[in-house]
Amino acid sequence: MESQAFFGNFEIVANALGGIARLRELILNLAIRGALVGQDDIDTPLDIAWDSDLLKLDSQKIWGNELLESTPQSWARLPLALIGKWGSGGTPKRGNRTYYGGEIPWLVIGDLNDGLVLNAENFITKKGLAESSATLVPKGAVFVAMYGSIGKSGIAGIECATNQAIAHCIPDENLVSTEFLFRLILGLRKRLFGQGRGLAQQNISQTVLKHLMVSLPPLAEQIRIVAKVDELMALCDELESAQNQRDLIRTSARRSAIDSISTATTPDELNAAWKRISDNWLTLADTSESIASLRSLILGLAVRGKLVDQRKPEGVGLEFVSEFSGSFEPVRAPKTVPFEIPKTWVWSYFGNVSINRDYERVPISKPERETRQGPYDYYGASGVIDSFDEYLFEKPLLLIGEDGANLVNRSTPIAFMARGKYWVNNHAHVIDSTSEHALEYLAIVINQMDLKPFLTGTAQPKLNQAKLNGLQIPVPPFDEQKRIVVKVEELMALCGELERSIVERNELAKRIAGAMAAEVAA
Known about the structure:
Elements: H1 3-8, H2 10-14, H3 19-33, H4 65-68, E1 76-79, E2 84-88, E3 100-107, E4 116-117, E5 122-124, H5 126-130, E6 142-145, E7 153-156, E8 161-162, E9 166-171, H6 178-187, H7 189-193, H8 206-210, E10 213-216, H9 219-262, H10 267-284, H11 288-302, H12 317-322, E11 346-349, E12 355-356, H13 366-371, E13 376-380, E14 383-388, E15 397-401, H14 406-409, E16 415-418, E17 422-424, E18 428-432, H15 436-447, H16 465-469, E19 472-475, H17 478-521
């Protein structure tokens, strides 16, 4: 891709998910490849001879030659060892108080800011400097992090010292300017990070840095490149600031829209609030997380009796509970309840309104399943995990994940309906009831609950049968349960459409940005 096309699509890339960061990376990529500004005929090409022996370089360790092929012929090819005087710092002995608290700024990686470094969190004394491997680094030196945050960089805006995790280069001004070297290091960050070694913490050494081959433009061109990079980075800053402001406005509008739903007191108010969201949600939210908050709100309103209108019921919630008296314990309402519910509803326990069929589930080992693949779904704690050639159940039942990290993280629903003919292992509770829509209502209740206080175990959280049966739940009349289920399904379908639109929009922007990145890199 020509640089003109890149600039023409600047805002398209910026608006992609993570686009600003990608854009900064592309700018630096273009800069170090010589594709950001044109080559000037009056620039004197660099022709620099170097000797690996004089530089004390091992020819077997030289790396990075593949990048040189895509840079202008007028640029010099040379190792980083040649462009300046390299060094690193040290740490005065920690137990000696006379080494710390002096007047010499002493940098650690956390002080590097990918910009001009003007201060440090720590200071050492002249004695600490003299009696350790730390050295004074002059203004204008370029820093490179070698441990952990490999490639993190900065320019010394003050005379200072560093610890051993930071390498520094005092540029040879006849070859390279401080400003260009700094941007070169930023553009090479991913390549440097790829050279990291170590288990607990990735790191590189000065040896790796010095053996890296780079292309260096003439000094006049370096000045033009630095100016263009700074101009485009400033534009990135402006775009990022505008995006942050839009996000603040969007968040405020989203909260207002959600508040209008949660405070609606009549069906008309509720329908109007949902219409406002459905008509404007793509401008109110642009992430899947935003849709997740909407789904959570729907479930919360459903179990509080605020999702459908309160008609004169054929009965009350107590009739539903009475169907199962004795399955867990005699019908009674909990002494304390989490929130207020309509007068025709009752509070009960999960075990009072459900039939547990855990005793019918049978786990099958994975090796055996592999030899007995078949047409029937095999369910575990998170849903269908395999297929099997036999089935245990052939009616709609509610399955509730019994163990696993999803009980805590809740990235997907833990309560879900199983239909058709299927098998269930011992990691999902099997729940029956008087009707399918009653089970679907119970799924809504479970999926909106915070179950953390009821889980046992730490390494492997578990919701055992006793804890499940003891959950306090709000119970509406039968006819209202059905209307709640229908409304929830309708609104969840809307959420699905909104989420698909957001994902499709972001994927399109990412593909455009990715195509641009690939063409620029080529």
